[in-house]
Amino acid sequence: MLSSDFVTGPVRAPTLADVASAAGVSLSTASHAFSGTKPVSTATRERVLAAAASLGWTGPNPLARNLRRGRSGVVGIAVGQLSTAFRDPAALAMLDAVSEELDAAGLGLLLMPDDEQVGVPLDAVIYDICGRETWGAYDELVARDVPLVVVEGPAWPGATHIDIDHRTGAAALARHLHDLGHRRVATLTLEASHPQREREAGLREVFTDVDVIGPSASDVATAQEAVGLWWDAGHAATAVVCQSDVQAAGVVVEARRRGLDVPGDVSIAGFDGVDLPWLDVELTTVVQPLGEKGRAAARAVLARIDGEHTEDVVLPVHLRVGGSTGPAPTP
Predict the structure, then answer these.
(1) Can you tell me the distance from the alpha carbon of 240 to that of 243, in angstroms, rounded to the nearest whole number?
(2) Of 40, 191, 199, 261, which has the most beta carbons under 10 Å away?
């Protein structure tokens, strides 16, 4: 005969009904204690939470809750080409912040390339890091009434826009170089996009005849090749302003390969304020609030999903002077 100490069948996982029974409250009161949809006294809520802890019940299933509300529980984010999306530290910092905010709200994040239609049900979409002026999925999302948040992108109707003050930051960087005596300045640009135009416009507030290199991707090797071809063609400048820190790192590498001192022979500056621990010189750069940008995008998504009105956001930036810029060399 089996001892009564042995369990002969599968152990049933605890449910919210078990928690309610253990706490001595109704099922609806236990549900409200977790969801916060209706007020529950502090004492009652603590009793419910204590009962849940004693039973090992970790809380409502967010997927089931979303399905009951007619939602998928998933937010899409268009990140350009997936093969290159994770090579840009600025993009990664923003994605981390978005993911943390959505995870805390019980929502999943789906990474999507920006060259495909949206083929899965989504509660909202963030369009970011792509640089395109048009997107084939936009009309589809509008037709489906899917909330859309655009980060540093086109001013599409119906979308909430999260941006940074590109122009002010670029102009501050240009004034820094002008104060150092630089007059022959070139810029390595990104592909045509809203950030590219605004950053170049800020630079031209000080240097109206700036020489344009590129466009180039935000990639070390691509930037190195672009500036190398420019130097090979006989061009010269005392300072090169890049539209990303990764580009600037590529220009530093290429300058040193050619025997140029940075910043003695050429000053090099970037944009973003990312951490590049492998580069042995601290870049002069425009620092943007990458984490706050991601959190602002996620908060806008959550508000749009709940049907709330959202305002566009423009976040400030600031200049950080490093060792990659110095006085213009004497002719």
Answers:
(1) 10
(2) 199
β pairing state of 239-242 and 267-272: parallel
Q: How far is CA 217 from the centre of its chain?
A: 17
- Over residues 195-228, the pLDDT tens digits come to 999 999 999 999 999 999 989 888 899 999 999 9
> In what side-by-side order are the strands of the sheet with 284-287?
211-213, 185-188, 239-242, 267-272, 284-287, 318-320
> How far is it, in rounded angstroms, from Cα 247 to Cα 88?
10
* C-beta of residue 107 within 8 angstroms of C-beta of residue 73: yes
Pairs from 222-228 (Cβ < 8 Å, separation ≥ 24): 222/250, 223/188, 223/247, 223/248, 223/249, 223/250, 223/251, 223/254, 224/250, 224/251, 224/253, 224/254, 224/257, 226/188, 227/188, 227/251, 227/254, 227/255, 228/254, 228/258
The structure tokens 């009951």 sit at 68
Q: Which CATH number fits domain 74-164+290-316: 3.30.190.20, 3.40.50.2300, 1.10.760.10, 3.40.50.2000?
A: 3.40.50.2300
CB 276 within 8 A of CB 285: no
Any idea what DSSP says for residue 249?
A: H
Which H helix or E strand runs over 293? helix 290-305
Q: Return the closest-CA partner of residue 109 out of 298, 283, 261.
A: 298
**Residue 92, number of CB atoms within 10 A of its CB:** 16
CA distance 226 to 212: 11
64 burial level (CB within 10 Å; 0-12, 13-18, 19+): exposed
Q: d(Cα 219, Cα 232) in Å, to the nearest integer?
A: 20
pLDDT at 64 over 80: no
Would you identify the CATH topology of the domain 166-288?
Rossmann fold (3.40.50)
Q: Do 166-288 and 74-164+290-316 have the same topology in CATH?
A: yes
Residue 52: per-residue pLDDT = 82
As a whole number of angstroms, the distance between CA 61 and CA 84 comes to 34
